[in-house]
Amino acid sequence: MRYRGFHLNDWDKCTGCGNCADICPNEAITMQEIPEIETEPGKKNERPQIDYGRCCFCGLCIDICPPGSLRLSRDYFHIHFKTGTFNLLAKDEKIDKESFLPLDKYSVLKASLAHRKKDNEGFVPDLKYSLFEPERVPMPQVRPEERKLSFIEQVLGYSKEEAKREASRCLECKLCEEACPAHLKISDYIR
Q: Where does the 4Fe-4S ferredoxin-type domain start and stop, copy by copy (predicted)?
């Protein structure tokens, strides 16, 4: 199903890259630092917070999410009089068990960002139709039979066309630079 309601985010998959915030046409997504999450190479301790006063539910954030952690649910109702309640740090049932209720405990009269249906996914990423090419261009290597005869480099490197194709996958989130042990400025090199 491709319905578009409130956001869900799998924090285990999310890398905190911020591509969702960058592509949002309404600037409805901001990245929030979560001190409880440890940073590691290739993963930030930031997660998307959505302002539903600005979100148009276009789904671009879903289509640009490299790990596919961000999805939209089929929850649409948020009944509250305070405007400050329209901001949500996107989570899913694994992280926020209190807000996601089974159908027998859910009431549409209490529907809000803190009272949602469990197992109610709608718009999910489909990498066949993503806004970037998720598949890496394989790096050519010398076969082991040839390698064992000399001290030549194992990795041959890309041709010019292969390098351009691989570089076109870059979303400029710079997570690769943070993970690189040599601290290369990869996004500058790609440009």
A: 4-34, 46-75, 161-189
CA angle 162, 164, 151 (to 5 degrees): 45
CATH number at residue 44: 3.30.70.20
Whether the Cβ atoms of residue 89 and residue 155 lie closer than 8 Å to each other: no
pLDDT (tens digit per residue) in 108-135: 777 777 777 777 877 777 766 667 777 7
In this structure, the answer to whether residues 100 and 149 fall within a common structural domain is no
Q: Are residues 52 and 120 in the same domain?
A: yes
Say whether both 21 and 86 belong to one domain. yes
Does 87 share its domain with 121? Answer: yes
The backbone torsions φ and ψ at residue 83, rounded to the nearest 5 degrees and listed phi first, read: -70, -25
Same domain, 53 and 115: yes
- List Cβ neighbours of 116 (8 Å cut-off, separation of 6 or more): 6, 73, 75, 99, 100, 101, 106
Determine the straight-line distance between the first and last CA of the chain, rounded to whole angstroms.
38
Mean pLDDT, residues 58-84 taken together: 85
Distance CA 91, CA 32 (A): 12
Structure-token pair, residue 5: 């309601």
For residue 70, the enclosing domain spans: 7-129
For 155-172, what is each residue's pLDDT tens digit? 888 888 888 888 888 878
The pTM score is 0.71
Which structure tokens are listed for 115?
A: 């009272």
